[in-house]
Amino acid sequence: MSTERREVTPINYLNATTGWKSWLFTTDHKRIAVLYLISITVFFILGGIFASLMRLELTTPQGDMFSSDTYNKLFTMHGVVMIFFFLIPSIPATLGNFLIPMMVGARDLAFPKVNLLSWYLYIAGGIFALAAILAGGVDTGWTFYTPYSTTYSNAYVMPAVVGVFIAGFSSILTGLNFIVTVHKMRAPGMTWGRLPLFVWSMYATSLIQVLGTPVIAITLALVGLERVFHVGIFDPAIGGDPILFQHMFWFYSHPAVYIMILPGMGVISEVVGCFSRKRPFGYSFIAGSSLAIAVLGFLVWGHHMFVTGQSMYASMVFSMLSFLVAVPSAIKVFNWTATMYKGSVSYNTPMLYAFGFIGLFTIGGLTGLMLATLAVDVHVTRTYFVVAHFHYVMVGGMVMAYLGGLHFWWPKITGRMYPEIWARIAAAITFVGFNLTFGPQFLLGYMGMVRRYHSYAPEFQPLNVLSSAGASILAVGYAIPFVYFLWSLTKGEKAPSNPWGAKGLEWETASPPPTFNFDHTPVVTEPAYAYAKEEEVHVG
Amino acid sequence: MPEYHLLPDAAAVSATAYDYLWWYEVGIAAIMTALIFAGVFYFAIRYRRRSEADAPPMIEGSRFLEITWSVIPFLVMLTFFFWGAALYFRSQSPPPDAMNVYVVAKQWMWKVQYPNGVREINELHVPVGRPVKLTMASEDVIHSFFVPAFRLKRDVVPGRYNQMWFTATKPGRYHLFCAEYCGTEHSGMIGWVTVMEPKDFQNWLVSGGGEGSMASQGQKLFQQYGCSTCHLFDEQGRCPNLKGMYGSRVLLSDGRTVVADEAYIRESILDPNAKIVAGFSRDIMPTFQGVLNEEQVLELTEYIKSLAETHGGIFTDVQTGPTAGGGRGGSIANAGQGSLDTRGTSMTNQPPRPEANAQAQDATQPPAPLATSAGTGGKR
């Protein structure tokens, strides 16, 4: 049976060559995307294990499961792994790598070898991070605040810092590759106005990666310089300024939040359009808002520092700009909703994840407005309110979008369908588990529970138990897709080239695509998302 | 059994003001969430796919709608901004008559000292209805002074003073948390803020403080480290005389003018060359970085402040200082340092003393011979 099937399978990027060398030395953007997919999944599981252990510890107010040092290392490594080795590469390095050349009608990225290099850099960075973990862990928090990280911590700070430093170059090279590809490799007729919204969001993301990541590299290099050679940069005892570190760190790390969320927004634009059979409402506003976020995102870093003692007037400017950056995000949410108007909405799994994204990102965004309000921030910053806020954006938003996108393009990537029923169940479980995990944390934050606390005041226990219970449901929601995705690789129904009736060049080639994506260079003759038969334009 | 609440206590003027803004924003956020959820659900159900042959119309978009749903939310956000900024502005502007309390954070404890010399650890006692200003320094890493019941938080950053102020409104005991991750025992760097009726507070305040006021401690240091030689009695004009200096505008050698506040005094002690007063030379004064700890710097600051407040009278004090101070060399500082911890710890078990006795000394008046002697007597 299976031999018969293999005989009729046409040549595609997966079976064109075989052997481990054909994967580890590949320059095919699709194979590199698969390499990334496997590696970030490993890190996601690792980060998830750290999170589970934390939630287990937090079921009781006493720090009775781990020592304080162990707990501090758990949250640090959860943050470092999830942010630098999962969230930042997640959609760009997997779906972006896989889809951007196909979406613009190219055979590969502009620099295929650089693309492979960026994966190796990611792996090298990951090995340093794993070495830090295996050697005994890091306890600085993922933010590496000075002078704790440079002078006081006795943990393995340097391997972790070197790991993040190296992984940053992977991010820079990926961004560079995407920018050049979008500029130079578009197929005939693929004008800027016809680019899929996913490409627009990835383009904006890449700008941040290229412009922002060098700053974190510099910052971490200075941390190394101070920690190893005692050059006074951040530690006031040797003439440095600890607040300078925070400025430099957040100058990258706030835009990095948009590196994490913009690609997710791109996925949602694709998914909502496809499963509504509609061109996304306000195409140019969605595309433009991605660029606006990329630009404005660089101007708001000081909102992480309202209570540090930075100038009151600087805080006011940062607060105002933070409200401004919320406008393009709001535009996207309204447009996704409006896209369904007069559409033909189906409830396939990717669309369920998109619903989840819109709802959870809305809550994450609105609580972000509360944090941008100066006086409100003073009370809830550094508490579980902030933890809940950014998990609503990063997990409720980004991970939902990532899973939605993975389901959406899984048939294209693997040539197999996932089991729809199980996938819908998993999406529902994820949504419930997520809200149960992070919803109570908003309340905990307002009540005053500080983040990164190993033990806590007894009155915070009930909500913590609820949160831990939710985390166990969330874990089930993530485990189910892991199982059926693996199952589908061999047992899944064979996927047609366009199972969703979607628009876009990637759906016009086989599933899985041939090594060079298209048999002939495609020529684009219609606008993006031309779902409607005739050009019937309504102005609402 | 712990009591479970869903709302934190509100025990300061700032907390009540905060909660109005908080609930306003929660309300707006709830309305927005409801609108978007309703829109998603309504459209998803109303326009669900009825047939595989569905062919929805092409809708490009609407500039009018885009502008509407950009501008209206932004206008609402502006109310968040202005309201939040106004409260923030107030929280950054302590009233001039606020009672001074000094806080030094170190891994992993809060040391609190009152100008009259009373010290506490992981405890802060304040009266109802009176503005209290905390001047905070860190001995090591960044900490953050967070009192949820006041809705206030301020980082305590090494190398500088950060200030926060509040007016407590409700007697009781409230959590004090360190809110910035500071190492192994971060979650153990907690304590209590006790808000007391003014009369109880004054009784409590005069019953502590065994070592004399902060200013008198600072005076001893001033003698011990030889500061007085140049800064009070110098005839040759090597160093600026510090009498009346605090709070004045100081002209610097590079032409700038600075107000001589706590931060300026601290910097001048730890990094004397950072700002040179006009007419004086660099490299005359040695640095005291690594010599004095933050508590000693604060005591010196209190003393220098007292030089401004009490005019000529302090001169006699200074001259009698060495005799009153007793032992010389490092022993005074060490004694003060060593007794700090034990005193602080025992203070925490000291219940507020409701029975009124001697009239309370105003805590903002640094030299408080009466209060301290009475306090010492009461204590021992």
Give your account of this protein's structure:
The complex is a heterodimer of chains A (540) and B (380). Chain A is built from 17 helices and no strands. Chain A is mainly α. Chain A starts with a helix and ends in a 49-residue tail after the last helix. Chain B folds into three domains: 61 residues, no CATH class; 155 residues, Cupredoxins -  blue copper proteins (Immunoglobulin-like, Sandwich), CATH 2.60.40.420; 117 residues, Cytochrome c-like domain (Cytochrome Bc1 Complex, Chain D, domain 2). In chain B, strand 1 and strand 2 form a beta hairpin. The C terminus of chain B is likely disordered. The interface between A and B is large, with 104 and 90 residues.
Give the termini distance of chain B in whole angstroms: 36 Å
What's the helix count of chain B? 10
Name of the CATH architecture of chain A = Up-down Bundle
The CATH homologous superfamily of the largest domain in chain B is called Cupredoxins -  blue copper proteins
Low-confidence stretches of chain B: 311-380
List the uncertain runs of chain A. Answer: 1-5, 535-540
Instruction: Using a beta-carbon cutoff below 8 angstroms, give the protein chain pair with the largest interface and the number of residues from each chain.
Output: A-B, 104 and 90 residues
| Main beta sheet strand tally, sense and closure of chain A | none
Strand order of the largest sheet of chain B: 3-2-1-5-8
The main sheet of chain B comes to: 5 strands, mixed
Helical fraction of chain A equals 55-70%
Number of domains of chain A: 1
Number of strands of chain B: 12
Tell me the CATH topology of the largest domain in chain B: Immunoglobulin-like
Q: Calculate the mean pLDDT score of chain A and round it.
A: 94
Overall, the morphology of chain B is: elongated
Instruction: List how many beta strands of chain A DSSP finds.
Output: 0
